[in-house]
Amino acid sequence: MHIINGWGCTVLLTSEGKQFDEVIRARFNIDFLVDGVICLHVLRKGDVRDKALEVVKMRGTNHSSRMVPLKITDKGIILYPTQRVYNK
Known about the structure:
Largest sheet: 4 strands, antiparallel
Strand content: 35-45%
Order of helices and strands: HHHEEEE
Low-confidence stretches: none
Radius of gyration: 15 Å
Mean pLDDT: 81
Distance between the termini: 42 Å
Structural class: alpha+beta
Number of domains: 1
Oligomer: single chain
Number of helices: 3
């Protein structure tokens, strides 16, 4: 990791799984290797699937701990930070 830091670039690692939970994160020890962990979720609500973004970890910055709804459009990703993913 020290070599990559010396390059002065940003590295994006991706991982795919049915559920990126504590067990998977602990198995790969990814939290200790990276400065940030961002999870994209696909949630089923009845017959509709919604997407959400969650910043699990981001070193050096104060970030929201809430899951945020998102939409992927032809112009990019749109986040809705004032809306709730789960309505109570």
